[in-house]
Every structure is written in structure tokens, then in C-alpha cells.
Design a protein that fits this description.
The structure is a single chain. By secondary structure, this protein is an alpha+beta fold. The protein has a single domain, classed as Small protein B (Small Protein B, Chain: A, Beta Barrel), CATH 2.40.280.10. It is built from four helices and nine strands, in the order βαβαβββββαββα. The chain has a seven-stranded antiparallel sheet. A two-stranded antiparallel sheet has the order 3-6.
């Protein structure tokens, strides 16, 4: 598994509850651009319409060699999930405070996969607590390394 891009902001802004692996309906030029790492998940979000799941706002840059046959960079892309997973996602989004966020995009057995997660929003004090824990862990690792 080769990770192409991660949405690091999602871990900071949300508590990630449950993760799902989804395939995507892509064009050939999009796959080539994603393999080159020319994709951004920072502005992307997942929405559910008519029992189908879509990712919107995922920016996939133009493939330079495609010329006139290039894709729209910010188009809405369909995600491939089974009915049971779609039901779980739609039930979770009905609850107050929950949303579905993309966390990373990667290659698995030559196919482009997207990891999405059911997430609950963090309050400001939760975010500060996360930063404190991370800093404390960094200090512990630093002091342990010092004595080795």
C-alpha cells in the first residue's frame, strides 16, 4: 500500500470514529495524475445523495501529456461502497455533530482507494488537549533518546 495524499487536518479537527475503504470512479488522466501525487484532499468533503456517495472538492491536477482530453480538476467523483456501508454512513450523518471526511488516498494492488471516516467534530479545548498530548509525547521520546 502506497499512500499518495493524506488529510492531516481531519485528525486535528475531528475525532475519527470508524473508517471505510472506498474505490472511486475515475478517468484515465485522473489516475495518472493521482499516481504522480498531484492530488489534494484538504478542501474535500463527502456527501450522500440518492443512496450514492460522492467526494466533492478533491483537487486532481491536469495530466500534462493529455492535452485536449484532460479532466475537470474539481469535479464531483462517485465513491464505490456496498449498500451496507452506505447505510452506515447515511445513518451516521443523520446524527447531530457527525460527518464523513476523507482521510487519505492510496494505491492498493494497483487500484486507487480512498479512506473515509465517520467523524465527530472537536471543540477548541479538545484541539488544545490534542496539541498538549502530542508535545508531551515528543518530549518523552526526546528524553528517552538522550539517555540511550
Amino acid at each position: 500500500m502506497k499512500v499518495i495524499a493524506q488529510n492531516r487536518r481531519a485528525r486535528y479537527d475531528y475525532f475519527l470514529e470508524q473508517k471505510f475503504e472506498a474505490g472511486m470512479v475515475l478517468l484515465g488522466t485522473e489516475v495518472k495524475s493521482i499516481r504522480r501525487g498531484e492530488v489534494h484532499l484538504s478542501e474535500a468533503y463527502v456527501d450522500i445523495r440518492d443512496n450514492e456517495v460522492y467526494i466533492t472538492g478533491m483537487h486532481v491536477s491536469h495530466f500534462k501529456q493529455a492535452n485536449q482530453f484532460n479532466h475537470d480538476e474539481d469535479r464531483r467523483r462517485k465513491l464505490l461502497l456496498n449498500k451496507r456501508e452506505i447505510k452506515k454512513l447515511s445513518d451516521a450523518t443523520q446524527l447531530s455533530g457527525y460527518t464523513v471526511v476523507p482521510t487519505k488516498i492510496y494505491l492498493k494492488n494497483g487500484l486507487v482507494k480512498l479512506e473515509i471516516a465517520i467523524a465527530r467534530g472537536k471543540a477548541d479545548y479538545d484541539k488544545r488537549e490534542t496539541v498538549k498530548k502530542r508535545d508531551a509525547q515528543r518530549e518523552i521520546r526526546k528524553s528517552i533518546k538522550q539517555y540511550e
